Structure formats: C-alpha cells, structure tokens
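Quick one: structure for this chain?
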Amino acid sequence: MAQDEDHQIIAKIEQSLTSTPYACSSLTRLSGGTANFIYRGILQRPLEDGTKTVIIKHAEEFLASSKDFRLTAERCVIEETILNALTTLPPSTIESSIVKTPYLYHFGHATHTQILEDLPAAQDLKSFTIAHGHDFPESLARSIGRGLGEWLRAFHAWTEDDAQRGLKGKMCADRFMAELKFSVNYDILVQKLQQFPGALEASRDVFEKVREMSREEIGKSQGEGFGLIHGDFWTGNALIQSTVLDRQQQRPKPTPTLFITDWELSQCGPRALDLGQMIGELYMLKHFKNLDAGLWIIQDFIEGYRPALNVDMAFRAAIHAGVHLVAWGSSVHGWGTEEQVENLVSVGRDFVVKGWERDLAWFKKSALGCLFSDEL
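Got it. Here's what it folds into:
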C-alpha cells in the first residue's frame, strides 16, 4: 500500500479513538497482517489495570496485502461476535504453557476497528520456530504442542455447551466464510492437477471425490465431529512471546503464553479442519527446513487433543493436512527448491488418498502415525 494511504488509515483510526479510553499517542504498523491492518498502539493514558499498549486491528473492504482483492469488512463482525463470547472459555493452563484468546476491549463498528489485548514481544509460532531453528528445545516444542491441543479440544467442547447455542446458530447461519475456505482449499486441490500432472493425475478421481465430500460439509453443524470451528487454525495465528527462550535458564522456568488470534474465518464444519491445517503447517517446518520441532509439536498437539479424537476424525484430519500441503504448501514462495515442492505435493497426495482409502496400516508407518493410536 502507498505510504499516503497508510497515513490515511492511521488518521482514520486515531480520529475514531479520540474520545475513547483507547486514544493512542503513537501507532506502529506490525508485520504479518495479510487481510487486515495491524498496529501496536501506545495509550495516551494507561487503562485502570495498568495496561499501556494495545493491538489495533482495522479492516477495509480489501486485503491489507492486496488492494485488488476485495473482501467485505463485515468479516470483523464475525470476529467481534466470537471474541466476546470466548471470554467465558477459561485459558488452557498446563504446567508448561498457557493458551488463550486475546481480550477484545472495544470494537468500533463504523470504522471496523478492534482494540485487542497485547501480548508483549509477540511473534507468530511459525516465525518463532524458524528463527530458532535447530536450537529449539524439544521440551518447549512439546509443551507448546500439548497446550495447543488441549486448548483446541476445550474450545470445540465449549462450542457445544447450551450457553453457546445462540452463538453457534448465528455463526452457522452465515456460510460465506465456510464457502471461502472450501474454495481456497478443495477447489485449489483439484486445480493443482494441472500444475503437477505427473504427481497428481493418477489421483484425480480421489481428489474430485474428496472435493465433493467437502462441499457437502460446508456449514454442517450437527453430527459427531462437526460444529463451530476456528476456521484458520495454523502457526501464523498462534502468537508466542519471542523472549521465552531468553528466559529458559530461569528457575523456575517461565510458562510460555500463547494467544490464538484471527477469528474471521470462524464457521461451522468438520472439527478435523482445525486439526489438519495445523498439522499440515507444522509438517512443512520439517519438510522444508528440516526442523524436528515441527514434528515434536505435531505429536504433542495430537496428544493434547486425543481424548476428543476418533478414527473418523483422524482420517478426515489427515486428508485435510494433505489438502493443505498440495493447495498451500506448493504455493509458498522461497521456502524450498522445486524438487522439495514436488516432493511435498507427493506427500500431500498420499495423505489425501490414503486418508480417503482409510489405510490405517499405511498411516501408522507415516509421519502422521501419532494420529492413529491403538485405542482408536
């Protein structure tokens, strides 16, 4: 975006906050916002609890990263709705990690601007893992994975509470985000046949059947394994304090806090989509960067979720992980060589095909063997 346009947006935000407790003395643009404009604001006056900084998330009728990509700014109303409801979901707190959603202080409907709780020195989990590379401690990776899995299981269970019936009905009534998620995953899956015919053409029939299965699941909220989901649950939307490793020598060790952010794609559908997207992203850390932390987090992520996992959900999660690798993993610029990308597409193909065929023996010998415990 041109600098003058960015200044116009900042001016709009500052004007909208002038008469609120969230008026800021400065705004600093943060990296990582694809759909929205994200800033850290220094408050002119601390809040009653001593808070001095907030995160400001502003939506326009287009993507922050691409003005030509039109997308209704009303998407942030979805996020406001669920974030307000999520104040009743306690943080997932285990000995080694705390996982929660940021508190929504304020929402300006006229300007589509959210004021959110700030996690100091925050970095998304994907960037954090890559930055620390092979020095990433296994114990920290596993505690992060366990915390994410337990939190996701608690969130999915919370959505089924009678108290959330109204929320679920409201979220499921709007199919736009569910249809968007279907399109950018399952339509793209089939389109990738043209880009990688050597690796994928023999699987065309399965890919098309998987797409039709997913089409029938759009907006589905009833039945085991279906309900209200995050909808964009991946390492880019899990924030962690970048300083946590600097403090690992402290005794007792500090407990890392993670924020689960970006709820605009929240929708009704298969809960396995939340599992599969996270698994797919973590797998790519191992595939492209040879980072064992990706697999360690996967293993304990699944362990944290396991009490709610059944064999049908496990196969569906494996399929979606494969779809993610083919549709998204093959499109990440600069991650790896052409050969690595083609190999990833082949791995994704196998996850999709073997998941569709429910080939338990194959999966138990694969990188996703941890999905399929003997108890399933």
